From TrEMBL:
PANTHER family recorded: PSBP DOMAIN-CONTAINING PROTEIN 4, CHLOROPLASTIC, PTHR31407
Protein name listed in UniProt: Uncharacterized protein
Domain of life from the UniProt record: Eukaryota
GO BP terms in the entry: photosynthesis
GO cellular component: extrinsic component of membrane; photosystem II oxygen evolving complex
GO molecular function: calcium ion binding
Gene3D superfamilies documented for this protein: Mog1/PsbP, alpha/beta/alpha sandwich
InterPro entries with a match to the protein in the record: Mog1/PsbP_a/b/a-sand, PsbP_C
Lineage: Eukaryota, Viridiplantae, Streptophyta, Embryophyta, Tracheophyta
Amino acid sequence: MSKTGWRTYRRPDDKSGGHGVGWSPIIPYAFSVRQDWEEVPVSIADLGGTEIDLRFASSKEGRIFVIVAPVRRFADAIDDDARIEQIGPPEKVINAFGPEVIGENVEGKVMSMSVAEHGGRTYYQFELEPPHCLITATAAGNRLYLFNVTGSGLQWKRHYPDLKRIADSFRIV
């Protein structure tokens, strides 16, 4: 479903980012964005540090970043074909990882929570305020993927339907 002005970003198979010794390659992911969104260099000094795999931004609409974290950081019993359900229910996942995404405790900030399934994989989706952000979480391989779409108050007000569409489009390929 390609609306004019939208494109699909797919993480290149050969993009570096092994995140430590002994890691398998990152399983590619994809999402839709408007044409004017651009990839932004990732710095290890960023919030989320070395686990941020990708950043995108639009001066008009907002920002996106993808955190790819080792699942074993959260549960030793998970094998190399992790499913988000093994990490826990949506409440546990957002309470554990939300602070990594927004830089503070998420208590009282979760406006909505939902569970979706696409291609046999479960995705947890959260909307937080403040700050305004949409988080889509899933697990694949030996990693947890946190896809975050955020914007200022004004960006949120003006572009919420597009930001929601971006958040809803995140998939492991």
